């Protein structure tokens, strides 16, 4: 039996593995992808100040560190079930079952789709898939693409495609229907972008600082937004046009765009077709909680964190003995926050294994998560800190409830 | 193609129109919508369409923030029957 199994070798999982190994734990890391690094692998962007964040390089550093510590990392293996039996955890992977005292779930996030007529045609992919093809496998997803869904992730990936010399004809909204929700509402999308303005397309930032002062100005902002979009790195970002159909018979041949009102209603007679050979759909990220959900761990839906998240403390413990979480499974944030969560989880786990971890070093690690969060260049939700506070309240209510039961 | 003909659940070939009509007729939550239409019950286990099925159900019902809509059940990845029956070796 292992001391610790970590599921997921992204920034959270690898950082946790390194920290726990430094404290002498016997660890196994499992990941279903072929390479360690998780979603770090796809990331490439310029930080304010001119430094480039190169995810492949960061993954290499983490994996190098892990291998110098002799860590056992198994790749290309999927975990399909986990269960707790007699105080230990059984991890059921493809052809093998592993047993461990402690289990850290660092499974990251999944992408949500947007649904547009034609979205099942070959050539339509999630924006993350286009990122992995381009940055990890170095295969062009196509010659000319359209991205549907305007958010932090899709604008970052649009720029990465541009760097790779893949033409992005437009980033536009999805059409309004019952499933596309706020992602199809120009005013909502503009507000969301302006709130994460340090990351948003720069022309928006300039407009944004003036527009944020009151609701009237915000509405004016979207009304005055140029119909043909604002160019970001030469890619038109269209907040007043929506893709109403993806065109093609056997594969993607183009999209039909239409101008929409500030609320996302299609203005008849404005339809136009633009040609492309691939389409990316970008509905945002949500915490990939499926394994945690099998354990009976309590969950709470917190919009600011991206969906349902497993209940956990600031030091990454869940209410279940020996079960810990770190990274995007706890809420959608950047890789640096995930790393600091991974480190914290590993310290909590080492402490629970009887290692000599001072309370002060654990609380310092918790503080590090907050300071990393406030310094983050990438923020997926403007109210992420409020979301974290909500979860902390749920944790305290849960802990109080448990105390009452014991009395 | 209109929204109504658009496939939402690819595995079970359930359309947007069928989901919206069912949700409207029965004011059902995600689970009931899944059971009535089979959306999310196919090979992929709802990994592609779960957020869409949820969104349609939420138009007619309130969200319970403490209950995951569309329960996860093992196996959460496709797995061979032979592998499921393998004997633990660690």
TrEMBL record, chain A:
Keywords: Oxidoreductase. Residues 3-342 form the FAD/NAD(P)-binding domain. Pfam families: Pyr_redox_2. It comes from the Bacteria. This is NAD(P)/FAD-dependent oxidoreductase. It comes from Bhargavaea changchunensis. The lineage of its organism: Bacteria, Bacillati, Bacillota, Bacilli, Bacillales.
UniProtKB/TrEMBL annotation, chain B:
Residues 7-56 form the BFD-like [2Fe-2S]-binding domain. InterPro entries: BFD-like_2Fe2S-bd_dom, BFD-like_2Fe2S-bd_dom_sf. Gene3D superfamilies: BFD-like [2Fe-2S]-binding domain (1.10.10.1100). It holds the Pfam family Fer2_BFD. This is (2Fe-2S)-binding protein. It comes from Bhargavaea changchunensis.
């Amino acid at each position: 039996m292992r001391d610790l199994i970590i599921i997921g070798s992204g920034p959270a999982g690898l950082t946790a593995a390194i920290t726990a190994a430094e404290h002498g734990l016997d660890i196994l890391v499992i990941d279903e992808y072929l390479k360690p690094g998780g979603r770090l692998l796809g990331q490439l962007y310029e930080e304010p100040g001119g430094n480039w964040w190169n995810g492949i390089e960061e993954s290499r550093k983490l994996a190098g560190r892990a291998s110098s510590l002799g860590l056992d990392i198994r790749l290309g293996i999927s975990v399909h079930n986990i269960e707790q039996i007699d105080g230990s955890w059984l991890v059921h992977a493809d052809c093998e079952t592993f047993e461990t005292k402690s289990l850290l779930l660092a499974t990251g996030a999944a992408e949500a789709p947007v649904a547009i007529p034609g979205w099942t045609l070959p050539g339509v992919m999630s924006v993350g898939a286009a990122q992995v093809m381009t940055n990890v496998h170095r295969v062009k997803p196509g010659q000319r693409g359209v991205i549907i869904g305007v958010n932090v992730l899709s604008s970052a990936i649009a720029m990465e495609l541009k760097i790779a010399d893949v033409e992005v004809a437009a980033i536009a909204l999805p059409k309004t229907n019952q499933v596309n929700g706020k992602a199809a509402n120009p005013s909502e999308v503009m507000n969301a972008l302006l709130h994460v303005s340090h990351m948003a397309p720069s022309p928006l930032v300039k407009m944004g600082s003036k527009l944020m002062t009151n609701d009237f100005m915000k509405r004016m902002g979207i009304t005055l937004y140029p119909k043909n979009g604002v160019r970001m790195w030469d890619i038109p970002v269209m907040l007043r046009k929506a893709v109403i159909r993806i065109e093609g018979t056997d594969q993607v041949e183009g999209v039909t765009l239409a101008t929409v009102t500030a609320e996302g209603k299609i203005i008849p007679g404005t339809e136009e077709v633009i040609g492309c050979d691939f389409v990316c759909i970008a509905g945002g990220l949500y915490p990939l909680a499926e394994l945690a959900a099998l354990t009976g761990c309590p969950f709470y839906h917190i919009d600011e964190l991206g969906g349902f998240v497993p209940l956990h403390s600031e030091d990454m413990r869940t209410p279940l003995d020996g079960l810990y979480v770190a990274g995007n499974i706890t809420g959608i944030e950047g890789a640096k926050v995930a790393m600091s969560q991974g480190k914290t989880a590993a310290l909590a786990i080492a402490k629970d294994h009887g290692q000599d971890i001072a309370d002060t070093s654990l609380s310092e690690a918790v503080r590090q998560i907050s300071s990393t969060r406030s310094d983050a260049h990438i923020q997926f939700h403007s109210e992420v800190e409020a979301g974290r506070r909500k979860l902390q309240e749920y944790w305290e209510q849960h802990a109080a409830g448990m105390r009452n039961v014991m009395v | 193609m209109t929204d109504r003909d658009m496939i939402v659940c690819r595995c079970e070939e359930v359309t947007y129109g069928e989901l919206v009509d069912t949700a409207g007729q029965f004011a059902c939550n995600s689970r009931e919508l899944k059971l009535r239409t089979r959306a999310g019950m196919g090979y992929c286990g709802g990994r592609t369409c779960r957020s869409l099925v949820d969104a349609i159900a939420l138009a007619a019902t309130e969200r319970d923030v403490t209950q995951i809509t569309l329960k996860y059940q093992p196996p959460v990845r496709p797995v061979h029957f032979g592998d499921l029956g393998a004997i633990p070796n660690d």
